[in-house]
Amino acid sequence: MQRLKGKVAWVTGAGSGIGEAGALALAREGASVMLTGRRKEPLDAVAAKIAKDGGAARVHPGDMSRPEDPFAIMEAIEKEFGRLDIMVNNAGSNIPDRSWKRLSPAGVDELLRANLSSAFHGSLAVLPIMRRQKDGVIINIGSIAGRFVSTQPGVGYIAAKHGVVALSQSINMEECRNGIRATALSPGEVATPIIAKRPVPVSDEDKARMLQSEDLGDLILYIACLPPRVCLNDVLITPTWNRAYISAQDQGF
């Protein structure tokens, strides 16, 4: 039995990586999925995969960091489906110049817009319909960088992802009486296309040991299928082969 049959999900950053995996998993379980991203071609490819498996998907390109785009997409969802049950705020990015020595004002703006503003705008767009329904799940894709400060992810990304975790918690504080649940899903290293933006290239061997997109897709589906009485506030998931731990061991700690 498809546990999400009759439900509607909106996945941002759905053209690749975690967003694609989440969209495929939700569609397999019966949800109708709205796919959003800045480029239409990858979204069309994901929609075609969903259709091939007998699922239902719609494509609406947009930039979640722009305040007007999420509200236009939400208007389209409401017009076509009349409801929204699951929101996956996955849109995000990083840049190579991420240390204080190399970071520019333009880089700061890009990081905050892509990783934090996008989650804010998405949440603002979906909360009204979820309040009316007295039900809804918002899954905000954070990062281990939003839980622990280190040098590798970069200061702007760390600050933005800490904001995403706080955003999720604040939704639960204010909206629990409306049946709305938010989860801050914070993965460690995941082998997604964003890794290509790291200043130091990652080997194929290390990528194979990382979390894979489908691991996060399975977890997104699990959260979406929980009963309304359950709010999974915060989830931290890492690879078993944790490179931070391995590095510490190699240094004799």
Based on the model shown, name its key terms.
single chain, 253 residues, alpha/beta, 7-stranded parallel beta sheet
Task: Give a verbal description of the structure.
- By secondary structure, this protein is α/β, with parallel strands linked by helices.
- The protein has helices at about 15-30, 40-50, 70-80, 105-135, 155-175, 205-210, 215-225, 245-250; strands spanning about 10, 30-35, 55-60, 85-90, 135-140, 180-185, 235.
- Helices cover about 45% and strands about 15% of the residues.
- It has a 7-stranded parallel sheet, with helices on both faces.
- It is globular.
- The model has no long low-confidence stretch (mean pLDDT about 95).
Question: What's this entry about, in short?
Answer:
The chain is an alpha/beta fold. The protein contains 8 helices and 7 strands, in the order E-H-E-H-E-H-E-H-E-H-E-H-H-E-H.
Give the low-pLDDT segments. none
| Shape verdict | globular
Assign a percent range to the helix content. 40-55%
Radius of gyration from the alpha-carbon trace, in angstroms? 18 Å
Largest sheet: 7 strands, parallel
Order of helices and strands: EHEHEHEHEHEHHEH
Computed structural class = alpha/beta
Count of DSSP strands: 7
Strand order of the largest sheet: 3-2-1-4-5-6-7
The total count of helices amounts to 8
Write the layout of secondary structure elements.
Layout: E1 8-12, H1 17-28, E2 32-36, H2 40-52, E3 56-59, H3 68-81, E4 86-89, H4 105-133, E5 136-141, H5 155-175, E6 180-187, H6 204-209, H7 213-224, E7 234-237, H8 243-250
Parallel strand pairs: 1-2, 1-4, 2-3, 4-5, 5-6, 6-7
Helix pairs in contact: 1-2, 1-7, 3-4, 4-5
